[in-house]
TrEMBL record:
Keywords: DNA-binding, Transcription, Transcription regulation
Lineage of the organism: Bacteria, Bacillati, Actinomycetota, Actinomycetes, Micromonosporales
Gene3D superfamilies membership: Winged helix-like DNA-binding domain superfamily/Winged helix DNA-binding domain
Organism superkingdom: Bacteria
GO function terms (MF aspect): DNA binding
GO biological process, one term: regulation of DNA-templated transcription
Cross-referenced CDD domains: LuxR_C_like (cd06170)
Protein name: Helix-turn-helix transcriptional regulator
Pfam short name (any one): GerE
SUPFAM superfamilies (alphabetical): C-terminal effector domain of the bipartite response regulators
Domain HTH luxR-type: from-to ranges: 277-342
Amino acid sequence: MTKAAALQRLQSLGSGTADSRALRAAALAEIGRVVPFDAYVWPLTDPETSVGVAPLASVPPALMPELPRLIRLKYQSRVNHWTGLTAAARLDEPAASLLWRELLRDHEVTDIASVAFRDRYGCWAFLDLWRIGGTYTPGELAFLDAATAPLTEQLRRCVAACFSTAGSTVARDPGPVMLLLDPGLRVIGQTPQTHDYLHRLLPGTTPDPVPAAAYNVAAQLLATEAGATTDPPLARMHLAGGRWLTMRAARLGPTADSDTQIAVTVEDSPVPDRTAVFARACGLAARETELLHHVTTGADTRTVAARMFLSENTVQDHLKSIFNKTGTRSRRALLSRAAGTG
């Protein structure tokens, strides 16, 4: 298959599904025809904080027990960190990468092609393609660059589609619940209600389910402490039925030493958290996003106009634009999608 044909197929993938996992799986099949790889890691990311959620991955079986360590090293590796990528990149100097030097080298990985899926609304995902034997060529990186823009738009639309169903069939807990991790990202404890809560959120998974985002948000905390990023350790994660969770990580002690535990809290996303992701996913402009936040507080048109120093007619024009971009026709429908109310 020619590169042009593969790009054409990649550009049309988004019309066939609103499911991000199906989209990524189909995209990997097309990419692999032009850019061969032996393993991959492709998580979505919180568009504002760039923390990974909803990973899709295939790694060597020997690495499975080391996934928390792999995540920790990925976040702390400054070489080709996805928050700084402006184009597809490979490991020009593998030994400079903490991830390769301390882990992947021992598993015979010889190169990694890294791509960040980012637009003016945020970072939506990153992709690492591992190669065992050989390195990636400039032509292969150029192909990945050409595929990035259409896939970014499609991934953002998939996130927007996650808000299409308001409410949830799962009863909400008053909580947050909390997981305790050691600095190696191993779970060492949890609050009494956490086990049951996570089983209801993630039915049919492992005996002790832990959302992948919990490891990622803790890794983000370690990365900020190491100076690898300045983004906060926070991630919003979508579940079925329009439900969103917010995860945060913090040290339990005053210092970030090797023995200080990490607390990861998990709670239903409050309205501002949901709304922030919704606005970015739907491609709202800054003023439209500001207006949406006012609407979610219950403010009427006159109140919004006064708060934003706009005329009421201008507020209505902005609302029409928001309705158009979000596929809604009324404030009630808009609130149902953005805030989970209505």
